[in-house]
Amino acid sequence: MKEYILALVGSYKALFIGLVGGYLGTLINLPLPWLLGSLGLNLCFAFTNFKIVFPTKLLNPIFLIVGIILGGTLNVTLLYKIHLWIFSSLAMLICTIVSTILAGYYFFKVCKFSKFISVLAALPGAFVPISAALLEFGKSKNDKGVLIPQATRVIFIVSFVPIFFINNLGFSEMTGYN
How far is Cα 96 from Cα 122, in angstroms, rounded to an integer? Predict the structure, then answer.
């Protein structure tokens, strides 16, 4: 337990920046303010020489919490609807593979990343496991080359996709949670 407390103390800058960013996101009415605000402000600080550290000791508890949240949403009734997802799942898989190859090629040729770093930077999603892989393989000196494209992708998608849907499809009532 002491090592987790020390890990929290070691990452106080990132946590404080995240709290301030989340609060600012709430003030300016961002969608998902605690995600976008904290990611956005940490991303802004990543472009500077300000050293932000987030120890790997905290990754396993984070994975546990995310796993519990995701596991709580999965149940048997989803299996009865799986036939509705076949074509969209295949299309998503193909688009993911193609976009990873194209982005990896861009990072390798244009940005001059190594092959390993360009693949990690090109992979969509998996922000936390990619961070863990960087530390595991000893490539943490290249972490900004991977984490900045990852964070930018998350911020862009979560910020602009809802605006696209609202402008093209309009608002929709949220039902099913009543």
Answer: 10
